[in-house]
Write a structure and sequence with these properties.
Helix content is 79%, strand content 0%. It is rod-shaped and about 85 Å long.
Length: 58
């Protein structure tokens, strides 16, 4: 688009947008960490229930 206008592409870094990007990245990291924790708990719970099921069987 800039080439069509004969002008160089350029711009300034907006601190607000930079802050929003940092916040979005932090939220994504928290979501990934929560997913990993919940997955680990689910695996542990499944193993515990399987072991208890073996004990309950005659």
């Amino acid at each position: 688009m800039f080439e069509l206008l004969g002008k160089p592409a350029g711009g300034k870094i907006c601190p607000a947008i930079d802050g929003l990007l940092a916040a979005a990245q932090a939220v994504a990291r928290c979501g990934i960490a929560r997913y990993g924790t919940l997955k680990s708990w689910a695996i542990q719970l499944d193993q515990t229930l399987a072991e208890e099921g073996k004990v309950d069987q005659p």
